[in-house]
Amino acid sequence: MQYTPESLHIYTEQSCAISRVKAFIKNLIGRGSRGPRAVFDSLVRGLRELDMQVAIDKKPAEPIDVACVLSGTCALQRVIEWKRKGLVKKIVAGPNIVVFPDDVQDIMRDDAIDVIVVPAQWVKDLWVSLRPELAPRIAVWAAGVQDPGEVPQGARSGLLIYKKHAPKYIFDAVVRHLADTHIPYVVLEYGSFDQRDYFALLETVSGMIYLTESESQGLALAEAWIRGVPTLVWDRGLFTGGGREWSGASSAPYLVDACGMRFKGAEDLAVLSDFMASLGSFRTRAYALEHFTDRKSAERYLSIISQ
């Protein structure tokens, strides 16, 4: 099926008043996540680069081919109702609706949903382990990041430590190792800085150490790569949340050799010397331009909904 600009409708949590209130409160108390908004922004930018017009959070006046619900269970429930009334032919749901497939009364198992989008293969594997019957409907799709253009060629030095809900023991181990090896560094803690500060720092450092327990995609990593910054990622391979534990997770599901390295624990920090020695050989920007621009991501999304 070919989708014309008029046929693509996107729905988000912002379409529901209660979701907007919840998001406002979370942002007010510093517990909001920029992920869903960043995914939405990237997809819309990419679709517009492809000369597509996008209807956002609008109830269709007449039947439409596909409704793309990016976030919000309230938005998904509403679109499911529209499909049952004949206003929507196909529903594509995800990637920012629920954490687990059995959340919110198993809403993702609703037969009205044709395609379920998740951000990484490990997330699909987790979902299939919990709800095997969903496997044929699940597609993996990664959002893009905005290309800042040519990367400034000024002098770079030191490392940026990006700390996102990382336990104290691993952060302390990294800091001690950097001090012992006389490598200068700066620290950014997730939720306590403006995005512009992050981008500005990426223009000054030689590399980044990324500390988080797990990532469904890792947009901040792609934002570093597209600015020419390689990453050393703590990747213990474990997800914990909602009373569950999954050993097939990743802190950097899209990290490849062209963009950096991984270490599993404090005992593996000797890899830092290899990382520093390889800083000039990584090809992070080239990889990101090939795989993670808004346009490339939008093209992949269109191929998924066209299946």
Task: Provide the descriptors you would attach to this structure in a database record.
307 residues, alpha/beta, Rossmann fold, 2 domains, 6-stranded parallel β-sheet, 5-stranded parallel β-sheet, 11 helices, 35% helix, Glycosyltransferase
Detailed description of the structure:
- The structure is a single chain.
- The protein is α/β, with parallel strands linked by helices.
- It has two domains: 5-144 and 294-305, Rossmann fold (3-Layer(aba) Sandwich), CATH 3.40.50; 159-291, Glycogen Phosphorylase B (Rossmann fold).
- Helices cover 35% and strands 20% of the residues.
- It has eleven helices and 13 strands.
- The protein has a six-stranded parallel β-sheet, sandwiched between helices.
- The radius of gyration is 20 Å and the shape is globular.
- The relative contact order is 0.14.
- Residues 24-32 have low confidence and may be disordered.
